[in-house]
Specification:
- The chain is α/β, with parallel strands linked by helices.
- The protein has helices at residues 6-14, 29-35, 40-45, 47-61, 74-77, 101-106, 118-132, 145-153, 155-164, 166-190, 209-228, 243-249, 265-272, 284-289, 293-308, 327-338, and strands spanning 65-67, 82-86, 89-94, 137-143, 194-198, 233-240, 256-259, 277-282, 313-317.
- The strands form two sheets. It has a seven-stranded parallel β-sheet with strand order 1-4-5-6-7-8-9, with helices on both faces. Strands 2-3 form a two-stranded antiparallel sheet.
- Helix 8 (145-153) packs across helix 10 and helix 11 (209-228) packs parallel to helix 12.
Length: 343
């Protein structure tokens, strides 16, 4: 259950210490929306519904954060990018804008207080914080600058630009550094304690380590520096499976790096655990969705003990927990993170 002192424990983890009580997170939005009996259209566009879903599931399952991931489209639909989804399908970007300087010059900086669904997210953050106060880590969301470019122009066109026009990527990244600083600071002002900085499109699945360092790393550094100045935490997530990229992402200055479910957590701890707080990485599909509750408990406990050794660790799933995950498996996962016996 959410508790007073959670932010002190999280900050101890970020400082590479062992917390008094281990924070337990879960990337549970799809599951939570299902358990709340909502469609994504209701959840994503109504701050009252969004905040109620989070508050109710925090109280039901005991998460130590409110994860307002929502979807990857919020900043981009206001720029003219298409969005497809609804019902029980998480919205996603589509119908991207032309990868051209004309597009970049036409972009207008959104106002988080007025434009699109940005105010919906801000209001939901405020409602959760007003209700749960300092007993929870309220975590907003945004896309890191390189991934923002891919969500504007599309992945294939952006990857082509790496070779055909890298300057256009860099100039577009500058726009998104400004946008994501502005959007992030608005979320902190609304009551967020931390931001989930999504950068899956900069992972080793898609670009090389050298390309990551050339195009992705500095943009993350710049936005998190602005968040640090207001005392905000940043949790970086690329669902990373490649060690070179993980080592590079640990150079961004973020508060914690989320380890993807395909990476050996012990190896990650050995590589960067001495300089960066890690988060993760229980497999959401093979374990949480498909395994029985006893196996979920045993594997989750193994992951927890591996990550927690020596401090600097926050327990979490390695990726989004699927909508149809059995409720008993979520409870087993949470008991394992709490150090409670399997029932």
């Amino acid at each position: 259950m959410a508790y007073k002192g959670v932010m002190d424990d999280i900050r101890d983890c970020v400082a590479l210490k062992t917390p008094k009580r281990a924070p337990v997170f879960a990337m549970s939005e799809e599951f939570d929306v299902r358990m709340a009996g909502m469609t994504y259209d209701q959840f994503n566009r109504d701050p009252a519904a969004m905040s109620k879903c989070l508050i109710d599931t925090i109280r039901a399952y005991g998460y130590d954060w409110a994860w307002l991931q929502v979807d990857d489209c919020i900043e981009f639909e206001v720029l003219g990018v298409g969005v497809k989804g609804g019902g029980n399908i998480l919205p996603a970007t589509c119908a991207y804008l032309p990868a051209a300087y004309e597009t970049l010059r036409s972009l207008k900086m959104p106002d988080p207080q007025k434009d699109g669904r940005m105010p919906v997210l801000l209001e939901a953050i405020k409602r959760v914080k007003d209700t749960l106060g300092d007993t929870i880590c309220v975590t907003g969301r945004l896309a890191a600058p390189f991934s923002s470019v891919t969500l504007l122009y599309g992945m294939m066109d952006t990857l082509t630009l790496i070779y055909d026009d890298p300057d256009l990527i860099q100039e577009t990244i500058k726009f998104f550094i400004d946008l994501q600083i502005k959007f992030g600071l608005a979320q902190f002002a609304a009551g967020a304690d931390a931001l989930w900085v999504g950068d899956c499109n900069a992972s080793g699945h898609l670009i090389s380590e050298d390309q990551y360092r050339e195009f992705a790393l500095d943009g993350v550094k710049q936005i998190v520096k602005a968040y640090d100045e207001v005392g905000g935490l940043s949790f970086y997530h690329a669902s990373e499976h490649y060690m070179g990229h993980l080592i590079a992402s640990a150079e961004t200055g973020v508060s914690a790096v989320s380890v993807g479910p395909g990476m050996d957590l012990a190896a990650a701890k050995k590589a960067v655990g001495g300089c960066m707080c890690l988060m993760g990485n229980v497999d959401p599909v093979n374990v949480l969705l498909f395994a029985d509750a006893q196996t979920v408990y045993d594997e989750s406990r193994r992951v927890f003990e591996t990550g927690a050794a020596g401090g600097g660790y926050i327990f979490n799933s390695g990726e989004m927990i699927p909508r149809d995950t059995p409720e008993e498996n979520i409870r087993a996962f949470m008991r394992a993170g709490r150090g409670e016996k399997f029932i």
